[in-house]
Amino acid sequence: MNKIIGAIVLMGCAAVAQAEGRPVTVILSSASTMTQGMAMVLANQMQAQGGQVDILLCDKAGDIALKGAGGEALKPNNVTPAQLLDAAMAKGATASVCALYLPNAGKQAEDLKAGIAAAKPDGMGRALLEPDRKVIAF
Fold first, then answer.
1. What's the start-to-end Cα distance of the chain, in Å?
2. Other C-beta atoms within 10 Å of 73: how many?
3. Which of 22, 39, 118, 129 is surrounded by the most beta carbons within 10 Å?
4. For the domain with range 21-137, which CATH number is right: 3.30.420.10, 3.40.1260.10, 3.30.470.20, 3.30.70.1230?
5. CA distance 6 to 26
6. DSSP string, 16-82
7. Is the peptide bond before 76 cis (omega within 30 degrees of 0)?
8. What is the pLDDT of residues 10-57, one digit of tens each?
């Protein structure tokens, strides 16, 4: 029995070690509040499990990167996708809007929250091609 418990603990440690520092890009372009919330919850969870999370927001999802972004609070924790984005960034995640967002949404860089900028396509393309990077799109 002790061997089984020991094996389970070792497997759990190995999974955490495997996730530790693994780069993950979350691409979010959905206008759906629930989808935005799910993407941000999962981004926070991946970060809590050791992933280095980079969030790329485009289309209507870019709106959660704006200063004063509100939105519908989602149950059960009554938080908005914008608040979940803020939480991920406070814990070290990076976030950017796609290069198309600002000019097509009629916004300027100064409309974005602190720490968020427009992604540079060449740098983002290079990052997405990194062999160890996990890319998840919503």
1. 42
2. 13
3. 39
4. 3.40.1260.10
5. 34
6. HHHHTT-EEEEEE----HHHHHHHHHHHHHHHHTT-EEEEEE-GGGGGGGBTT---PPBTTTTB-HH
7. yes
8. 344 444 445 679 999 999 999 999 999 999 999 999 999 999 999 999
